[in-house]
Design brief:
Layout: H1 9-18, H2 25-41, H3 49-86, H4 89-95, E1 99-103, E2 111-116, E3 119-122
Antiparallel strand pairs: 1-2, 2-3
Length: 123
């Protein structure tokens, strides 16, 4: 977008409108005039629709793969937890797994953490 003809004023009016404030008739006229000028001066987007379609398709495919991998990760973590629970105390200690705690975090969704000799380690 170009710099407004009314430095600061158009932007201030724009912010006020975005906040739901009313503009006076004169402010509204200036706002509309500058908006029309900016729309006229704006460079048209150079869009390759086929490239956008391919990228969208790739993003959807990656999202599906991600979902499948997260599901498989949850299955594997459940199997690991079951196996570690079935181990005897001595075996767990020999492997360095004293206690296994699992929790969900907003950023990673699934995270496993084993406490090995008092030090937390991601598994």
């Amino acid at each position: 977008m170009s710099t407004p003809s009314y430095p600061g004023t158009w932007w201030d009016l724009h912010i006020r409108r975005a906040r739901g404030e009313s503009l006076s008739a004169e402010e509204q006229r200036r706002y509309d005039q500058e908006t029309s000028k900016q729309d006229h001066d704006a460079t048209p987007l150079q869009v390759d629709l086929e490239t956008l379609r391919k990228m969208r398709s790739q993003a959807l495919a990656l999202a599906a793969t991600n979902s499948e991998l997260r599901s498989r990760l949850a299955q594997l973590e459940a199997e690991i937890e079951a196996i570690e629970r079935s181990l005897g105390r001595e075996t767990r200690e020999a492997l360095g797994v004293v206690e296994l705690r699992r929790w969900l975090t907003p950023s990673t969704r699934v995270c496993g953490c084993a406490t090995i000799d008092g030090a937390a380690t991601v598994v």
